[in-house]
Fold this protein.
Amino acid sequence: MSALLAISRAIDAVNSRLGRWCAWLILAAVVVSALNAIVRKLFDISSNSWLELQWVLFGVVFLMCSPWTLLSNEHIRIDIINGQLSKRVRDWIDIIGHVVFLLPFTIVMIVTSAPFAERSYAINEQSSSAGGLPQWPAKFLILVGFVFLFLQAVSELIKRIAILRGDMEDPHTGSGHMAEAEVEQLLDHPETPAHRA
């Protein structure tokens, strides 16, 4: 298990760094969008490449920050149900969810997006819009994003198993979401409104 946990830590380190770097592209997308709008309004000049660049930047953020979101335990859950369950049950739900849903989904996306991206690269696929960007980098981004998400799912599975075996402490214990804290407060004191800390 120690070797698997070392692999998990390496995956976590890569996805954490990657997520933090790619998150800055939100700012880049906002700047590109604002400059494109200003130039279009002031000078009546526009380019499809600027519009497509915004989409690509958004795609990078969405795909490359998804593993970081999973690592940070910020993915969507039904908090009011999740908060009612014991820690052990939640860990088992995570394990089953990863094995039955997340890992197979990422594998399907990797297997189907690889030839999709390869064909696009082989023909040097370009935008159908005049002055647009090449399309193959964006299509390769789908493949790369799901490879990293697959790796993070493997890392999370390793950690959940290690936690259940008692080989490690849960890194997310005590750092629940604000919504979870509100649910706990409502359950403990239903007569008083929940206030965020």
